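for the writeup, i need someone to sanity check this before i put it in the appendix. the sequnce is what the collaborator sent (i think, or maybe the updated version? ugh). structure was predicted straight from it, no edits. if anything looks off just tell me and ill rerun, i have time this weekend
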Amino acid sequence: MEIRPLQKFPRDKLEQLLLTVPFYKSIKQQDNWQFEILLQHSRIACFSPGEVVLQRGERDQWLYFLLKGRLQVFPDELCQGEPVNLITPGEVFGDLAMLVGSERTATLIADPSCREVMVFASDFRVFGDLEAIQPISLQTKLTYYRNTVHNLRWKLEVYRSQNPQHSFANKHRQVKLYTGVKGTLEELRALHAQAQALARLLLEWNGEFGNRVATDATAQAPD
């Protein structure tokens, strides 16, 4: 792994890369100062073909987005046989374990067929306590959790369509949507609770199917 400080990238190239990530694209559009704060707590990591990106059983507070290349997902540390999933540019990964405070549930490696894999990593500790509004604002947190809940619900709907008779199929629909006033701490608390509940459901699918249908990675839902 090679860590590349963001300062080494031409600014226009960096912003072009981040346009593939819905969360960063939204923050750039709505609050450039918040975008700059997030960049100050982020870095880019480049991986060689076959190199381990995340290891099952690890813990950390980094949130990851794939910018370039492809990642293979394996349910254990051995990485034998065929990968159970592939991660492509624009997708977020590592977020499920972080949401529920668990260890990583899968091992991710840089696809051996890709010349280079580029990952954007943000230190989630900059978000601070859930209800703190400095240095990360309420609006930025709301954007993050709205995006996360949207992606998780979309992913669970995909699993439901693939396994409509399974006992897990409708569980995510029992997680209540927020119907109160938008843009408030109340909404943030509700979104955070939804994200945690939905993440636990994805991890239940992991345990049931041995990572055949879900991994410690959440594909971006269509906008």
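Helices lie at 11-18, 22-30, 32-40, 95-100, 138-162, 185-209. The two ends are 32 Å apart (CA to CA).
thx in advance!!
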